[in-house]
């Protein structure tokens, strides 16, 4: 039985610094007391993507003020923190080292245990912070900027990967296609906004591996198809891709989104059929996509399957999901080491390497 605990979570794997405090009372659902987030998007926009060195330096600037903010908002002090959790990987090495260094220094200074959390487990368990939390077991579709995976989830640390992308992730397909259309970085939200006014049937784009007999994905060819289509249109109209009429750009955006969403939905339905499960969780940044949510809800609704999502503001990277994953691991019996005077990060770290018995 876990005693009451206050868990501080620090996320710094990429371009968002997130800090949160979660309260654990025995085996009750952990409660989010406060969270604070600083997004570096504006800083990286000038470069069209994340610059790792700038990201690390900015995490250093933000992490302690955000921690102060979270403690103040929850009426707690550093001495009230029982466990310090941080994102150990996967992610950018330098960025991860900032969160790891700060968390381990806090643990050493306060004499409190420290727990390194898997970033994707944070995403996966983030729907447990929503008003409509799922129950185990479920099929999870994890769709972020760097990962696209379907898995069977039987409990905390009980993950079986059913299929994954063999090249680009879904978020990458959104981002790279958006860049081609002149929509800047990060492109996913911008492409999805533009798609709202476009015709998804305007252009026939490939649905990679749609009819393969496995649950793997491949999105690398899609951006090439978008590029070829965009170039054809711009040559025909004697202009740059970005100068194409807004309606054409919207049609291309809507067709791109339709291709990505159709593959994600069809493969998710196949995973549900294969496992016989009737609950589904969608997590990661692309889980914020309206088109994906609408189509998945419609198809799953027809089959009596409930789909659970994180709250919209917790779909992309944040500290709350890291504190929550740590809290759920502690409730499941994971021990957090104390006296951590050496630490490492894991820029590459498969999710099925962190199974609990
Ligand atoms: O989970 P996340 O914040 O970071 C990673 O762990 O990678 O996901 C970021 C990804 C980016 O590729 C971003 O473009 C995409 O999620 N994204 C979206 C939307 N919001 C974020 N993609 C499509 N539609 C959205 N509304
Ligand atoms: Zn993420």
Characterise the protein shown here.
- With 357 residues, the protein is of the alpha/beta class.
- The protein has two domains: 5-126 and 315-353, ATPase, nucleotide binding domain (Nucleotidyltransferase, domain 5), CATH 3.30.420.40; 135-309, ATPase, nucleotide binding domain (Nucleotidyltransferase, domain 5, 2-Layer Sandwich).
- Helices cover 41% and strands 18% of the residues.
- It contains ten helices and ten strands.
- The strands form two sheets. A five-stranded mixed beta sheet has the order 3-2-1-4-5, sandwiched between helices. It has a five-stranded mixed beta sheet with strand order 8-7-6-9-10, with helices on both faces.
- The chain is globular.
- The chain starts with a strand and ends in a 26-residue tail after the last helix.
- 52% of the residues are buried.
- 5'-O-[(R)-(carboxyoxy)(hydroxy)phosphoryl]adenosine (KG4) binds at residues 123, 144-146, 171, 174-175, 186-189, 192, 284-286, 288-289, 316-317.
């Amino acid at each position: 039985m876990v005693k009451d605990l206050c868990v501080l979570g620090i996320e710094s794997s990429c371009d968002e610094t997130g800090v949160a405090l979660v309260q654990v009372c025995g085996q009750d659902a952990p409660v989010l007391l406060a969270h604070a987030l600083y997004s570096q998007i504006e800083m990286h926009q000038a470069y069209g993507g994340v610059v790792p060195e700038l990201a690390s330096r900015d995490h250093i600037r933000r992490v302690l003020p955000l921690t102060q903010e979270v403690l103040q908002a929850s009426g707690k002090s550093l001495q009230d923190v029982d466990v310090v959790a941080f994102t150990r990987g996967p992610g950018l090495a330098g960025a991860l080292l900032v969160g790891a260094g700060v968390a381990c220094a806090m643990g050493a200074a306060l004499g409190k245990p420290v727990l390194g959390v898997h970033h994707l487990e944070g995403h996966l368990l983030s729907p447990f912070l929503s008003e409509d939390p799922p129950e185990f077991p479920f099929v999870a579709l994890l769709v972020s900027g760097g990962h696209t995976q379907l898995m069977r989830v039987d409990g905390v640390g009980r993950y079986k990967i059913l299929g994954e992308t063999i090249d680009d992730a879904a978020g990458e397909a959104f981002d790279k296609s958006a860049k081609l259309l002149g929509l800047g970085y990060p492109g996913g939200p911008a492409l999805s906004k533009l798609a709202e006014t476009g015709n998804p049937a305007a252009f026939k784009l490939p649905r990679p591996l749609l009819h393969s007999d496995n649950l793997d994905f491949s999105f690398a060819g899609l951006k090439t198809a978008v590029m070829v289509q965009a170039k054809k249109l711009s040559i025909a109209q004697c202009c740059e891709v970005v100068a194409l009429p807004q309606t054409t750009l919207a049609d291309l955006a809507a067709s791109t989104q339709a291709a990505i969403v159709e593959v994600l939905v069809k493969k998710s339905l196949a995973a549900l059929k294969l496992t016989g499960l009737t609950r589904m969780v969608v997590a990661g940044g692309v889980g914020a996509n309206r088109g994906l949510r609408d189509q998945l809800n419609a198809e799953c609704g027809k089959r009596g399957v409930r789909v659970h999502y994180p709250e919209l503001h917790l779909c992309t990277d944040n500290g709350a999901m890291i504190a929550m994953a740590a809290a759920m691991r502690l409730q499941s019996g994971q021990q957090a080491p104390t006296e951590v005077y050496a630490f490492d990060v894991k820029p590459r770290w498969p999710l099925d390497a962190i199974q609990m018995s």
